[in-house]
Write a structure and sequence with these properties.
There is one protein chain. By secondary structure, this protein is α+β, with helices and mostly antiparallel strands. The protein has 2 domains: about 180 residues, Roll (Pnp Oxidase, Chain A), CATH 2.30.110; about 90 residues, no CATH class. It is built from 10 helices and 14 strands. A 7-stranded antiparallel beta sheet has the order 5-4-8-11-12-7-6. A hairpin with an 8-residue loop joins strand 11 and strand 12. The protein binds flavin mononucleotide.
């Protein structure tokens, strides 16, 4: 067991495992808990007899925009190492339609993941409507608001035993996006699409819940957490997120500006900013200013808490 602290002072007490000493279900359990939420691909495929298959896959993501490439991974069954129908289908007819799964469809999609016998149409079992695709043979799911028609570029097996993944590398050849989930900017609205994602066990989450925005870091690179005065980290009132917000400022304000902001914030100037009492007052105000989005002012107060009026190294 080892221990480490992150910038907000949280201590973790680690356990460790070598996957070579674990059975496949235990490894899968760790991976699914560790890597989540994972988006869910609802993949429709077809076999040479024209029988359609529909199954969800959360070992899935986007890997390239030029060309547009998605990868999902139907694993060999842990039970007996056999191939899933989706895998067999894409080996024979290298086409797939990948649809996004909104919350409104999650239980139908879960039902479609049942191990129905080969040839059983999961569109029908799950009560979903098949619409013809434009450029590929498998149909798409009318109830989903986003369909991506794909040609399979390659299937890359990652092993031969039960639980081994098979990367199905797909190039998107056509996008269908419902107008109702499109923003005027052309982006997909995460509230409207309300896509589900999978975690460990039976847990799911959805994209309309608990959304928050984090501004992209500056192109020019922020000053960094390591440029903040040490007193601010030592006093421990700001978590790592807030320290990083300060570290994303482009420059440290001049001392003149720092003093002006200090006087504006504390007109009575009833304390010495570098005293313990002063730093506590500064830290509280810095938190408040950060909550109000006034990051430059917060950084100026942080600099005022440094010895010698902010001139020393942090
Ligand atoms: C939300 C969800 C995500 C899933 N993700 C995967 C996955 O990434 N890989 C996999 O092999 N099976 C996954 N499964 C299980 C398959 O959907 C299931 O084995 C299905 O029966 C495969 O169908 P098929 O044999 O018709 O291809 C998932 C099931 C659910 C409900």
């Amino acid at each position: 067991m080892s221990q480490a602290s992150n910038p907000s002072g949280t201590s973790w007490h680690f356990e460790g495992w070598d996957p070579a000493n674990l059975d496949t279900p235990s490894v899968q359990n760790l991976l699914q808990g560790a890597v989540g939420p994972r988006p869910v691909a609802l993949a429709s495929t077809i076999n040479p007899r024209g029988e359609v298959n529909l199954s969800p896959f959360s070992f899935f993501n986007v890997f390239s925009a030029n060309p547009p490439v998605l990868i999902f991974s139907p694993a060999l069954r842990v039970r007996d190492g056999s191939s899933k129908h989706t895998l067999r289908n894409v080996m024979e007819i290298p086409e797939v339609v990948i649809q996004v799964v909104p919350f409104a469809l999650v239980e139908q999609v879960s039902l479609a993941s049942s191990e129905y016998a080969e040839g059983v149409n999961e569109f029908q079992k799950a009560g979903l409507t098949a619409w013809p695709s434009l450029k590929v043979t498998p149909p798409r799911v009318a109830e989903s608001p986003v369909h991506m028609e794909c040609k399979v570029l390659e299937v890359k097996p990652l092993g031969t035993g039960g639980g081994a993944g098979n990367l199905v590398i797909c190039e998107v050849v056509y996008f269908h996006v419902a107008r109702e989930v499109l923003l005027p900017t052309g982006s997909i609205d995460p509230y409207a699409v309300d896509a589900v994602a999978r975690l460990g066990g039976d847990w799911y989450t959805r994209s309309s819940m608990g959304l928050f925005e984090v501004e992209k870091p500056l192109r020019t690179c922020g000053i960094g957490v390591d440029a903040l005065p040490t007193w601010l980290q030592e006093i421990g009132t700001l978590d790592g997120n807030r320290l990083a917000r300060l570290g994303n400022q482009p420059t440290i304000p001049t001392m003149e500006r720092c003093r002006a902001i200090f006087l504006e914030q504390f007109p009575a100037r009833a304390f010495e900013p570098t005293s313990q009492e002063g730093r506590v007052a500064l830290a509280l105000r810095i938190g408040l200013l950060l909550d109000q989005g006034r990051t430059e002012q917060a950084l100026a107060l942080a600099m005022m808490g440094k010895e010698e009026g902010g001139q020393e190294e942090g």
